[in-house]
């Protein structure tokens, strides 16, 4: 857990990196802007490069949290939710000048920093591929790595062209267009059995994710299945419907936002869910509890 003082240094360094650029920002600039001593700085970060990594990681953590929050209570296979997630990614990257930060780091003389950036280069592509595994039918899997590459490539070039045209088109329009386009492409290449890069090589091409995406595991699907059971079991105007769904979403948030989820609160929420007689006898609820128990 990052302490408040360290978070403040990361925030102030980010401001300086955007204002002056990574190279033009000295450690003394950071000390002055953060109002900390040199000893405190080196207690937090061995070098300016390590501070840059912390800035980059902090932005990514916020991005991941926001991206996952959009999925709470939603079906991971809903491509409309995926489009909203991508739009959030683009917004956060733009607001935090991520492209500028990456370019500054790549032209640095710090080999360790350059390696770090190269390792994170395919993080977004990895995430798109994993989301496609949720969105498209299982028989499309052989074509989804190609699809993720095509989707990210088209979208990035569209955004660059739009920027050169003084942003005459909104980012939402571009993302929606690319989302519709990739659905057509995946269907087309699967029918023609056209494949360039096999997903079997995904571990060689893409770095293993250094973060735990809550919605890439069995609990996400168990939660969605249980949500559907609850909605079928309760009338739309039944007050219990809202209460049961709130309990389900609470468990999601508790696990997603806490490295050490408060087990007693989750167990209390489960007890409340068990008061639903139509839920207790279902295999979905039994599976949900079994999956959840493995994570606590």
Question: Notable features of this structure?
Answer:
296 residues; mainly alpha; 2 domains; globular
Report on this model:
- This protein has 296 residues and is mainly alpha-helical.
- The protein folds into 2 domains: 60-205, no CATH class; 217-295, no CATH class.
- The chain is built from 16 helices and no strands.
- The protein has helices at 4-20, 27-34, 38-44, 48-69, 79-95, 98-106, 111-120, 123-135, 144-164, 171-192, 202-205, 218-233, 239-257, 263-273, 277-280, 283-295.
- Helix 5 (79-95) crosses helix 10 (171-192), helix 9 packs antiparallel against helix 10 (171-192) and helix 12 runs antiparallel to helix 13 (239-257).
- The protein is globular, with a radius of gyration of 22 Å.
Number of beta strands: 0
Overall SS class = mainly alpha
Strand content: under 5%
Helix and strand sequence: HHHHHHHHHHHHHHHH
* Major sheet attributes: none
Q: Poorly predicted ranges (pLDDT <50, ≥5 residues)? A: 207-216
* Whole-angstrom Rg: 22 Å
